[in-house]
Design brief:
The longest helix has about 55 residues. The protein has 6 helices and no strands. The protein has one domain. The chain is globular. With about 230 residues, it is mostly helical.
Length: about 230
């Protein structure tokens, strides 16, 4: 009788422990989805802020859309708005990198692609700290750092788009996106070589940046929909 009585509490403890483990796993999964959803939201907000500044700030700035670079907006009237847009965009890119790594971990190119997107974000943040020299010249240390950081950031992002396109192809939750991602990668590569001087330089740059941001928005939107999709029990 004593053995039976001592056996029952042990069995009950095992059941409680099992339930506790399940509850802990469920809580961890929910927390993981919330984290990825936050990363996606930050990426979308950051991208939106940058687009709004690049297209709307020229209306009140002495720097325009057609001929002047986006970075030159930080030198003109209400330039702090463009600087803040750089910060928001850089943080958004870092958030997207974290979300991508979290949801594609284990797939080919996940780490490399996520790191490249993160390097793009760091480059954007450096551009916020070191302003461009007028006309895109390398007249100062700050202007030189700005141009070098932008160049490295753009190259990293183009490579990331190609790498992650293959990652998406091999990831179940992302597979339907890989062809769109690859097409945008080729468009970004082509736009990267558009003329960087002349009276259309600003517009050409906005075309390139617009392609990159389109990719980021599409990926962030998929990230958000993926983490919000209810799990099947």
């Amino acid at each position: 009788m004593q053995q039976e009585n001592t056996g029952q509490p042990v069995h009950g403890a095992q059941v409680t422990e099992t339930r506790g483990g399940r509850d802990g796993s469920a809580s961890g999964a929910v927390g993981g989805r919330r984290g990825s959803n936050l990363f996606a939201t930050v990426a979308l907000v950051g991208s939106g802020c940058f687009v709004a500044s690049a297209l709307l700030l020229p209306a009140v700035s002495e720097y325009g859309i057609r001929q002047d670079f986006i970075s030159e907006l930080a030198l003109g009237r209400y330039g702090f708005v463009q600087t803040l847009a750089f910060v928001a965009f850089g943080v958004g890119a870092l958030a997207l990198a974290a979300g991508l790594r979290k949801t594609t971990k284990g797939s080919w190119g996940s780490l490399a692609g996520s790191v490249l997107v993160g390097l793009f974000g760091i480059g954007v943040l450096l551009d916020a700290v070191f302003p461009l020299d007028p006309g895109g010249q390398m007249a100062t240390v700050a202007g030189t750092v700005h141009l070098m950081a932008a160049l490295v950031a753009f190259v990293c992002m183009i490579v990331a788009m190609f790498v992650l396109s293959r990652t998406f192809k091999q990831s179940a939750g992302w597979r339907s996106l890989w062809s769109v991602s690859l097409a945008l990668a080729f468009l970004a590569l082509a736009a990267f070589f558009l003329p960087s001087g002349g009276e259309w330089a600003g517009l050409f740059q906005r075309v390139f940046v617009g392609i990159v941001i389109s990719w980021m928005v599409i990926v962030a939107t998929r990230l958000r929909s993926t983490v919000l999709r209810p799990t099947v029990r």
